[in-house]
Structure formats: C-alpha cells, structure tokens
Amino acid sequence: MKQMKMNQRSRFLRFAPAIIAGWAAATSAGEAQGVSGVTATLSGAPGAGNTYDYTLTLFNGGATPVEGLWYAWIPGAFYLPSQPSSAAGGSSGWTGSIVNNSIQFKGGAGTALDQGSSDAFAFVTTDSPTALAGDTGGGVPIGTSYAFPGAVGGNVTGAEEFVVQSVPEPSALGLLAAGSLFFWAIGRKMTE
Q1: Helices marked H in the chain — which ranges?
Q2: Can you give the pTM of this predicted structure?
C-alpha cells in the first residue's frame, strides 16, 4: 500500500511541471489578447454657430489590434456634457455613432488599427474644449474611454480603459506664449 502511494506521488510530481507550464501559457495567451498601450488626443476648433469641431486621434502602441473605441464612456456612464450632433469614422473605414452622451467608433477585423498605427475621427458638439478637458464632477475625466480588441459593447473583457488627452486650444497656447514672453522681458529688465 505504501509503495502504491509513492508511485502515485511520483507520477504527480513528474507531470506537475507540465501542468504548471500549460496553465502559465494559457494565462499569458489570454492576457496577450487584451488591448494595451492605446493613447488618444482630442483637439477642437470653433465650428458653425455655437458648435465645436473635434478631431480625436487614436494611436495603438500595443501588440493587439484595436477594432473599436467608445469615447467618453465606462460601463453604465456616459460622460459628454451634451449629446454630439454628428460623429464620423476615420480614413480606415471605421464608423462613428452617437450613443447617449458618448460616441462609438467602430472598425472590424479588416479595418483594425495594428500596432504602431493611428487614425483620426471627427465629431461636432456644443461642448467647449475647456468642458471636454474637465471632469464629470466626481473626479473622473470626461475623456475616460475604452479601446476594444473586437466589437464595441458593454463587455469590456480584453478592452483597455484610458483617458483621451485634450490638446489646448491654439488661443490658449498663444496666451501662454505671450504671458511667458512678458514675464521673461520683465525679468530681463529687472536684472539690468
């Protein structure tokens, strides 16, 4: 009886490394399918009337192709202050659709953004660039979004949550440059 138990233990110990290696490979393969390394920027300019025209540039810095982006959304929450009036996909054949106060930009397997590629999408809203650079009032940035490895939807398995970064308006950059120049000139005058 003791010999039989030792044989069973011996067999188990012989196969344990293979079982552990198989589990580790399955775990890392599952993680490799998730989206990571995605970044995006948002720039806006005055449009017609009281609207703003926005360009959202999405960049895939990770190994998994990106097939969709849900901008200004997390499960159960839509973050844009108001509903956009239009949304358009980029040059890669993606489409844009408005869902409550958020936007879904959808591609597919044939139009996925591969590693190192980017595309620009457009939308129009009455929300100012300052408003879109802010937060929801609860400390969550309005630009909080999800990039998907497959179909855009409520299931975020394999998707990456990230924040779309707002690029300052050109007028704000101009004011910053002018103010910096002014203070530089004053400082220079005081040292003479």
Answers
A1: 2-32, 129-132, 170-191
A2: 0.73
- Taking the chain, what is the end-to-end CA distance rounded to the nearest angstrom? 98
Paired sense of beta strands 68-71 and 144-148, if any: antiparallel
The class that CATH gives domain 36-175 is mainly beta
> Strands of 118-125's sheet, edge to edge?
86-88, 118-125, 52-60, 38-46, 165-166
Half-sphere exposure of 158 (CA within 13 A, CB side): 20
Residues 115-143 pLDDT 10s: 999 999 999 999 999 999 999 988 999 99
User: Does residue 170 or residue 136 have the better pLDDT?
Assistant: 136
Encoding tokens for residue 132?
Answer: 């879109």
